[in-house]
Automatic annotation (TrEMBL):
The chain holds residues 508 to 766 of 766 of the full protein. The lineage of its organism: Bacteria, Bacillati, Chloroflexota, Ktedonobacteria, Ktedonobacterales. Residues 41-257 form the Histidine kinase domain. This is histidine kinase. It comes from Reticulibacter mediterranei.
Length: 259
């Protein structure tokens, strides 16, 4: 047999080992690439709001001196928006690290899902007036769980649906139930997700590699957080998608036995 040259190492007589080594190496490279992408994206995501905050604070100081109340008020609302964005980002990073350590805590309260979805849809519609959000609730469904954590599941899916679809398109959120389960489906008419990457998007820090997707800022934490919360409630999440046509995410949660 011929010696095989892999990554600078010569592996003689062991073609199986060589293949394992190649796979290992490319998986490691992919992880490293993902980490580099994450750090790069995270730095931008942190730096941009900070730059905006600095600028607006300087403006605020100038206008307060000149008593330009209107300009000052508008600077304050930009500051507030950027602070909210940073807070969300930092909270998501903390959530991910708590999830990794298995230390995320869940409250137990009765959650009316139809009410929760209405609130999320309204808040999101307010933030994104150029999309049309359609909410369909065929049932009244309640669950024993953590309202904020469950809210995170649906607002992440809805905000992705908006983020990865063009303005003026419709995003649907649909609540239904069977005897045993509650189902929420979020559908968009946007970019879609290539078949071979559909499993990976649920992994921590994974982002779809297409240029269109990459141009949209994000850190690849949302779907990981969603998946972990759904797993906590012994539910499932799945995705159906067609590139260029759109995607549909379905969350199925078992009804609480004592709800
Ligand atoms: P983020 O959006 O911050 O990158 P997520 O974990 O929420 O992170 O999503 C992971 C990746 O899955 C995204 O980068 C995006 O490429 C893809 N994705 C998620 N939701 C959608 C969607 N509705 N349509 C198209 N692509 C999506």
């Amino acid at each position: 047999r011929l010696p095989v040259l892999v990554g600078g190492a010569i592996l003689e007589h062991h073609p199986h080992q060589a293949i394992a080594f190649v796979l290992d190496n490319s998986a490691r490279k992919e992880l490293e690439q993902r980490k580099d992408d994450f750090i790069n994206m995270a730095s931008h995501e942190l730096r941009n709001p900070l730059a905006a905050l600095k600028l607006q604070t300087a403006m605020l100081r100038r206008h307060l001196n000149k008593q330009g109340i209107h300009t000052a008020a508008s600077a304050l609302s930009t500051i507030e928006t950027q602070l909210n964005k940073l807070t969300r980002l930092v909270e998501e990073l903390l959530d991910v690290s708590k999830m990794q350590a298995g230390k995320l805590e869940y409250r137990r309260e009765t959650v009316d899902l139809d009410v929760l979805l209405r609130e999320i849809a309204d808040a999101m519609q307010h933030l994104h007036p150029s999309h049309r959000i359609l909410l369909q609730r065929a049932v009244h469904a309640s669950l024993l769980g953590d309202r904020d954590r469950l809210g995170q599941v649906f607002s992440n899916l809805l905000s992705n649906a908006i983020k990865y679809s063009p303005d003026a398109t419709t995003v649907e959120m649909e609540l239904s139930a069977t005897e045993e389960t509650i189902r929420v489906r979020v559908t968009d008419h946007g970019l879609g997700i290539p078949q071979e990457q559909r499993d990976k998007i649920f992994e921590r820090f994974y982002r779809v590699t297409g240029t269109q997707q990459k141009a949209i800022p994000g850190l690849g934490m949302g779907l990981y957080i969603v998946t972990e919360i759904v797993k906590h409630y012994e539910g499932t999440i799945s995705v159906d998608s067609a590139v260029g046509k759109g995607s549909s995410f379905t969350v199925t949660l078992p009804k609480s036995r004592d709800a």
